[in-house]
Amino acid sequence: MKQALIIVDMQEAFFLDSENYLFDYEKVLENINMLITWARHSEVPIIFVQHTDSNKDDDFAFGKPGWDLYHGLLRQPEDKVIQKTTWDAFYKTELAQYLRNQQVEQLIFAGAQTEFCLDTTIRNAYSYGYHHNILVEGAHTTLDSRVLNAQQIIKHHESVWHNRFVNIQPRTFFQTK
């Protein structure tokens, strides 16, 4: 089954100001970079999804310092970058067509934010017919909300997603030998 690694919204905005730091971001970045290394070793296409806000004053607006993909990711020029303007990486983007052209059958997800763009993209991937997807434990994250802390949000979403929209795998499943 041909796979693709999809890394959602790991952008500088989450690392420029301590009030926007993602929960457990150092561990998450380590896990995402481990996945990137595994994907390169396994010849799995890597797709970076980049949120692009239409509000020119937003941190995620095109050209703003926060819009750039995080500099600490092991990104290479040949990696695919898909810009999106909503929480859904499939909506009005080239993602679905790119995956079809690459004959991808299984998606491996990582990134941010758990309850927003990652959740919407994971659920829509299932609607597009990707029914055997994987989410890597410890490779996605979010911020605290007014109601739940980030750890609770992550745990809740993993319990909803697992064995429905994705199978959650430990990072050790993807370590290169």
From TrEMBL:
InterPro entries hit by this protein: Isochorismatase-like_dom, Isochorismatase-like_hydrls, Isochorismatase-like_sf
The Isochorismatase-like domain, residue ranges: 4-144
Keyword Hydrolase: yes
Domain of life: Bacteria
Gene3D superfamilies: Isochorismatase-like
UniProt-recorded Gene Ontology molecular function terms: hydrolase activity
Keyword annotations from UniProtKB, A to Z: Hydrolase
UniProt entry tagged with the keyword DNA-binding: no
CDD domains: nicotinamidase_related
Family: Belongs to the isochorismatase family.
Name of the protein in question: Cysteine hydrolase
Organism per entry: Lysinibacillus agricola
